[in-house]
Structures are given as structure tokens and as C-alpha cells.
Amino acid sequence: MSSPVLELRKLTRHYPTPAGPVMAVHELDLRVERGDFMALLGPSGCGKSSLLNLLGCLDRPSCGELLIDGVAVSSLDDDGLARLRNHKIGFVFQHYHLLPRMSAVRNVELPMMYAGIPPAERRQRAVEGLERVRMAHRLEHTPSMLSGGESQRVAIARALAMNPSLVLADEPTGNLDTRTGEEIMQLFEKMHREGTTLVMVTHSPEMAERADRILRLRDGRIESET
Amino acid sequence: MTTSDILASALDSLAANKVRSGLTMLGVIIGVALVIILVSLGESAKTFVDDQMRGIGFGRNGMVIHPGKMDPPIEPSKLRLEDSREISRRVPEVLDQVPIVVGSAYIRAGGQEYKTSVRGFTENYTELVNHRVESGNFLTSLDVEQHRKTCVIGQKVKNKLFAGFEPIGETVRISGRRFTIVGVMEKKGEMMGDDLDDLVIVPITTAQDLLDTDKLNAVLVWARHTEDLPLIKERIIEFLSGRHMRKDDFHFHTQEEMISILGTITGTLTAFVSGVAAVSLLVGCIGIVNIMLVSVLERTREIGIRKAVGARHRDIFLQFFGESMVLGLLGGLSGLLAGIGLAALVMMRTGLPVHISSWAVLLALACSLGVGLVAGVYPAMRAARANPIQALRFEN
Ligand SMILES: Nc1ncnc2c1ncn2[C@@H]1O[C@H](COP(=O)(O)OP(=O)(O)OP(=O)(O)O)[C@@H](O)[C@H]1O
Ligand SMILES: [Mg+2]
């Protein structure tokens, strides 16, 4: 039996502030199995983004343990975390976070560039990735020439570029209208059907319903899971 | 990330801010151009003087005795023809000497007349100085002894007075007196501002008669061995002082001295210019650091994004470091082109040989690379150290 994609053991993140520490994530225990589609739901400020940043190795826990594919994150140095983000994790952000001066296809190439994949191969894979999100007609467009939905589809192609074990999405439809948001949700469901493990932060209970697990957070703790 | 990825990224971001990049490079451009222009000009001038001296065959073993204590002489010369003869006789280290009288006179033939330079030499002039007869003969010792009215003319004189036919054996009038042409000197061009084609050479004795003087304008002296020159100087001083002169009635020039005077001048110039160039490069360096820090700050979010998709510490470092190196190198190359262009222009305008110092080019390129290197390290380190989350949240 293979190890879970994510395993959290009393995972904690406190932010020190002048008014005392903020408990953004408090002693969370959780397992996410391969192929899971999990939604993180909860009121604003409950620690959803903080948790996602920890899961994505953008941030380090204050204490507790996080294992990704069975590897303890605390055992890795910064470059080790960078390699982990590069090979195992794909991010989709609310604000897309595409590089403004680069074309869509070069944005998708970016993770592959850092993985050391040769230019010709990464270009080909980036084009294929953009075809999969139906963006093949906008290869050379820069982000400023793309609509919000198109930008997010490019960002999804970038997240999937390295065939990650885990895709993390922080309010991926938060900036989009209902119809465009629906298109993005369909892409996530397609990813899920194809076997990608997904953790998605959302504010909307309807969106959360489409996941197969819903984790409700309050004040950095798990309130309930359905 | 490959080298070409780094380069492409650097060029992209510099191209996105063309004016800013250009202004940033200005310090480096000026510094590099200055180094190239001044070093090349200095070397070109040195080559020029060297060539000139070699051109008239005034080799390293030669020196000139000039009258008076400074150049140009302000008091009348006291050097006489007997003095120069005695030098050969009394100072055994001297290989040979040529006394010189210089003046100007009207020369006339076939109804044409114009003013040219008259030079009085002894018969050994062409053996010692690299200035030869093209046709006919040079003067003989008899010509000198007997004050004969024979002459050898330069190419310009020949072209002006005898266009199209052989002048040897013809008669010319110099200051109204009849001279027979025995030879024509080879074409020599200008040497240190002196046109060696526009002259008529006559026996030294005749020249003194013609110019109504018993003095000399200079004496050329050659040593058997170059290292004897200081000794010869001393002997000549001793000997001439014993005769009719004081110590400051004459002075010496050796080629070494002239080159070393030029060396001091260009040395001072080079030191000054190196200072200016160094300051300019330093300013260029600070400019690059400054712009790179601004660039790192502006692109904080970009750094966050790159880190989120897997850029390591060194990937970010190399990206910004590469940008700074490209700035330095582009500045260096632009400065190189500007410097070479301007230096060549100045040399062509002033008639100096066109020469670009290769070590100055290498030095300038090394400097611009060095500037890019030094200027890049700190900003690139700051970029590489950025915390991914803070960088992603950064608003600008
Ligand atoms: N860098 C920080 N320093 C101090 N406190 C922080 C920092 N980042 C987040 N917090 C605090 O931690 C708590 C959780 O923040 P987080 O961004 O994870 O909430 P969230 O659930 O994503 O909210 P939202 O739904 O509004 O995005 C908040 O109270 C926030 O103020
Ligand atoms: Mg959030």
C-alpha cells in the first residue's frame, strides 16, 4: 500500500504579531489519499490559505509534521522544498499569478525550465498542456491579452505541467463570473477523473459540494468533515 | 535552467525597460570608451614618434647637439664647423658626425621661382641618415672642401621646376647664384612637421656662404656603441667648454630622451584618464546596483511565482546576476564600439597612425564584466533570499 499524498500530524502554524501569536493553523491531523478531491471551506481568516501554503511547501510549519508522498518536509532544506514544489505540487492561485512579460506557452514552460527539461521538449509539452485546457489558440498571448478565465486556464496548464502528485488551488474561481467559474470547475472535475489529487480552497458551499471530501475549518482547527 | 534561459530572461527584462537600461549603461559606456580612446591615442603617438625617428635614420645610437640651452634656441648659435670636425677627432667613441645649417632661399629655374628650405650637410649625410639619393649622386667631400655650388634637390622641387624632364646637370639659381644639380633625393614625406621633399641640399660650406653665417644650426653625432652616449656627452661638454663656449651654450637630444619625454607626457595623461575612467566605471557600477535593486523590488511578485513553481535559490540568483552581467557587458561592448570609432576618427583627423590598443580593449571588456559582476551580486542575493509567500503577496 503506497503512502498517502499528504499526511499531517499536529501541523501548526502560528504567526507572531505584536499583539501575540495568531493561531492560523492549529494541531491539524489529516490524511489525503491519492486521487482525493478535497474542498477546504470556512469563514474568512480561518486559516485556509495558511494551510494551503504549508501543504504547498511555500511556508514551513511552526511545529508538527507534514509528509508529502511519505517524505517529511522538515527534513528538506530550501532547495529541497523548491524541488518538491517543482516535481510534486501544482499551484492554482486566485489571482492567476502568471508572469506578465511571458507568453502563455512560456508561462507553462516555466516549471519545466526549472526542472531542467530541454527547450524543445518543454515547448511541446507546454503546447499539449494548453491544448488540454483548450487554450491552444492563445499560445503567444501575454497575460494582459487574456481574459480572467483564459488566464486561469493557462495557470492550470502550468500547474499540471510537471504531472504533480498534488494540485493545490486557492479560490481558483474567486475572481471569475459564475459561467467562467463553472468552466474552471469542470476542468478540475476532469483532472479529478484523470486521477489527480486535488485540494481546493473555496468560499462557496456549492463549489465545495462538487468535491468528494469537504473539510470545514474554524480558527485554524477542523470543525467538521463530510 | 540553461545559460541560454538565463540570457534570454536577462535580455527580455532589459528590453522591457530600454531607456532605463540604456541610461544605466551610460557610466560603463563612457568609462570603457575613455580607456580605449586614451590608451590607443597614447600608443599611436608613441608609434608615430618612433616611426619618425626611424624614418630619418636617427637611430638609438644617435643624438643631436643644439645651440643654446633650450628649444627653440633664443640666442644665436655659437657652434662652428671646426667644432664638429674636432668632435670626430677628439672623441674616439664617436662613430661620425654631420654638421647642419638650415635656412631658406628662393630657387629659380626655367623662369619659375619659389621659396624652399636650404640645408647644408657634409658628404656623409646619406650614409648615416636614412635619406637617400634617388638619381644622380650626393655631394662629395670635394664639394664641401671647395665650397662648390652643387646641389641635390628634393622631389617637390623637382616637380615644381622640372616637371617632366631630368634635372641632373641642369642649372638653378639659389638666391641668385648659379648651382649645378648633381642629384635628386628620394621621396620621403613629412617627418615631425618637416617636409623632407621640399628642400635643396648644398655643401655645408656653400650653405654658410649662401646664408652668410659661420655658425651651425645643429650637429648630429653617432656613437660607435649606444651605451657610450652619456660618456660622449661628457667628453663633448668638456671639449666644447675648453674652446669658446660655456656649458649652456649648447644642449643634447637623444632619441631615448625624446621618447621618455613623450612617455612622461602620455604617462601623466594616462594616469589622469585612468582616474576619470575608474570614476566613470565606479559610477556605472553604482548605477547598475541601484537599478538592479529597483528591478528586484519591482519584480518581487515574479520572484514569488518563480519560487512557487520550483525555482531554487541559485536559479533566482543567476537570473538577476545574469541580468547585471548582460548590462555590464552590453555597456562594455557599446563603449568599445564608441571608443574605437572616436579614437579612429581623432587619429585620422590628426594624421596619427590608426591604431587601437588591444590590451586596452581587453582591459575595458574585463572592467565592464567586472562591473557587471560586482554590481550583480548583492541585488541577486536579495532576490534569491526572498520568502516565497511574502513575495507572492507583494503589492506594487
Ligand atoms: N503573515 C502573517 N502574519 C500575521 N498574521 C497572518 C499572516 N498571514 C495570515 N495571518 C493571519 O492568519 C489568519 C489566517 O489567515 P489566512 O490568510 O490563512 O485566512 P483565509 O482563511 O485564507 O482567509 P480568506 O478566506 O479571507 O482568504 C488570519 O487571521 C490572518 O490575519
Ligand atoms: Mg485565503
Which terms summarize this structure?
heterodimer, A: alpha/beta, Rossmann fold, six-stranded mixed beta sheet, B: 396 residues, alpha+beta, six-stranded mixed β-barrel, two-stranded antiparallel ribbon, 13 helices, 12 strands, 57% helix, elongated, binds adenosine-5'-triphosphate, binds magnesium ion
Quick overview of this protein structure:
The complex is a heterodimer of chains A (226) and B (396). Chain A has 226 residues and is of the alpha/beta class. Chain A is built from 7 helices and 10 strands.
Could you walk me through the main structural features you see in this protein, from its secondary elements to its overall organization?
The complex is a heterodimer of chains A (226) and B (396). With 226 residues, chain A is of the alpha/beta class. Chain A has 7 helices and 10 strands. Chain A has a single domain, classed as P-loop containing nucleotide triphosphate hydrolases (Rossmann fold), CATH 3.40.50. Chain A has helices spanning 48-55, 78-88, 104-114, 119-132, 148-160, 178-193, 205-209; strands at 6-15, 22-32, 37-41, 63-68, 71-72, 89-92, 166-170, 197-202, 213-218, 221-225. In chain A, strand 1 (6-15) and strand 2 form a beta hairpin. The mean pLDDT of chain A is 93. Chain B is built from 13 helices and 12 strands. In chain B, 40% of the residues are buried. The model of chain B has no long low-confidence stretch (mean pLDDT 87). Classes of the chains: A alpha/beta (226), B alpha+beta (396). The interface between A and B is medium-sized, with 28 and 24 residues. The structure holds adenosine-5'-triphosphate and magnesium ion. Residues 48-49, 170 of chain A line the site of magnesium ion.
User: Which percent bin holds the helix content of chain A?
Assistant: 25-40%
Biggest protein-protein interface?
Answer: A-B, 28 and 24 residues
> What's the helical proportion of residues of chain B?
55-70%
Largest sheet of chain B: 6 strands, mixed, barrel
Helix segment tally of chain A: 7
How much strand of chain B? 15-25%
Identify the strand order in the major beta sheet of chain B: 2-3-10-5-7-6
Ends apart, CA distance between termini of chain B: 27 Å
Q: How many structurally independent domains of chain B?
A: 2
Largest sheet of chain A: 6 strands, mixed
3D shape of chain A: globular
| Average pLDDT over all residues of chain B | 87
